Amino acid sequence: MSSGLDYTKLFAKDIPGPSSRGEPDPPYNFTYGHGSPDLLPIEGFVDAAADVFRKDGRSLAVYHANGGGLGYLPLREFLVEKLAKHRGIQVTADEILITSGSQQGIIAVMDAFLEPGDTVVTEMFSYAGTLGNLRRHGAEVVGVPLDEEGMRTDLLEKTLTDLQSRGIKPKFIYTIPTLHNPTGRVMGMERRREMLELSRRFGVPIFEDECYADLVFEKEYEHAIRSLDNSNYVLHVGSFSKSLAPGVRLGYVVAPWEVMSQILPFKMDIGTSTMGQMIVAEFLENNFDSHMEHLKSGLERKRDTLIAALKEHFGPEVQPSEPRGGMFVWVRFPEGIDTRKALEAAKAEGVAYNPGPDWAVYADDDERNGMNYVRLCYALLTESETWEGIERMSRAFREAGLT
Length: 403
Ligand SMILES: Cc1ncc(COP(=O)(O)O)c(C=O)c1O
What we know:
Blueprint: E1 28-29, H1 42-56, H2 73-87, E2 96-99, H3 101-113, E3 119-123, H4 128-136, E4 140-144, E5 146-147, E6 150-151, H5 153-165, E7 172-175, H6 189-202, E8 206-209, E9 234-239, E10 251-254, H7 257-263, H8 274-314, E11 319-320, E12 328-332, H9 343-348, E13 351-352, E14 354-355, E15 373-377, H10 383-399
Pyridoxal-5'-phosphate is lined by residues 33, 101-103, 127, 129, 176, 181, 209, 211, 239, 241, 246, 251.
């Protein structure tokens, strides 16, 4: 014990609890939304970095080089084209803010909108990073059940009507319509239209998180909700973490200026790394389509491997989802099984996975927390590691008496 300062008396009140130092990741790690080391375009990054530094490197000497506070202009111009071509979204570069990962954009939107006690509506299972930050902002989170097409709009309508009758107007509807995390589901166009109609009817904006939207394995697929709205009902966030790599730490917010101008003051880091934006812009300009084709076919193989391994080692009682893309399989175990009970045995086998309640809005409610589900990420491991990891996981589930 040191005889120095007692910092616990100096920290601000009501800050989050301390982080643990963490343990090294286990060898068979199915958690997080990590990318695939074997599918990274390393040589492309190297060439892009060399080219762009020779061309534009000296602009790194100034803050906000080439583009101001919204981010590096060539990257925003690339996004204008990409969003139009792949997501059906028509915007100008001035409606795009580059952020340090989409997480920073999500938090900046929350900072601009939320006060303690405000209500936010979302899918009943959602991205833990968003749920955690909503709670930190003091928001009341209301979860709407999903089916095979994502959030059920009939139940969303019911939820909004119930809230209205109690005098509550949610600040926004946060949704992950394309390759929803954790379930991997994709919302059909009709349902996207219905959600937008509800947003207009109740005067509640949609906050659309399309972090995984580049990873649908088909060539043509559903456009963003934002593509259906040319007024200002939909705020949109996207990321390069899944299409390139999480270590790139680049994401973006698409919003009309009246909203963007209130989000921008909460991006208090004097700009996202221009160096990273330069390399990514240079790489993507010539390589986006070919890289995505390569990445998606690699991920598709990995998805098939994980599903095959689950069927082989867990047998027919366990039902893995068959996602149309992305990096997660949402696995259903028989009713009544609590998948959290095998976490320790799995750890001893060198395996990590996320039980359903990690993603649940109502995590403490055993009727609604998805305790008989697990989410497995198939991107990180090689195919042989996946086979080995799932065999070990099935052993852990047997040892814990779950199968
Ligand atoms: C739905 C969703 N949104 C946002 C993020 C944050 O990603 P990043 O900050 O790396 O863009 C994640 C990360 O896994 C996610 O799953």
